[in-house]
What we know:
B: 17% helix
Amino acid sequence: MKLTDATAWPVLDPDAPPVDFTRENAAYEKERERLIAEHRGKIALIHEDELVGIFPTADEALLEGYRRFGLVKMMLKQIDDSDSPEVISHVDTQHPSFRKVEQRQSR
Amino acid sequence: MGKYSATVADHLILPARALQTMGQQRLFDVAGQPIPTSVAVRFLIDTGSKRTTLIPGLIAHLRPALAGDVRVETSLGIGETTLFWVRLEFPGTSLAPIPEVAVARLSLPLSLSTFHGVLGRDMLRRWDSLHFEGRLGRFTVRDRPSGLLGWLGR
């Protein structure tokens, strides 16, 4: 089973691929510079194409999201200015939870 | 002050429990959804990893809130995965719970299948120290400074 519905609260099977945040990421990118300048470290609540608000904690963002939209898919993104990939040493890169973007060349 | 000490055989292991954050539990309760039970986890402490991870089977059980996605660099290449907000508790230790942390949903290599995730520098940065005593074969995690420094609140 994948996401049961693209707008529902996520129920991911262990073998499901990563969640698609195309819409949410586009909404975040539109405001990215301002958010980093003014709200670094806080949590941006994004529902579909809308940046709903900024909150001190993920739980506060979640409860506001629930109050407005119910138990649905929403992204609670921590605002930071890092663009580079995060190094994680121990990953099964063959598992569907890891969506390959770039293969490293073997020497 | 909370701390956890253990001997080291092959790995630095930290036992914990993973669960939904308090806000998520409240939300599930209000929404009439069953609240997933907490799960005992064995973390591999990994100073080479920037972020803490949990295996997909555990995330499937917890149904936690989404924190977005993240690009991940490994020795085999770059990929993407999903981040989730969870709460971590450390029963059997005096370490204080972490109310919310965004963990990456990633599977571990087969050689590490006895673990449920890696505990990366994002968690270690929240604590005061990770002290490894090589000759004694022991490590200690402290969440706040000990001794006079801790008393003074540094």
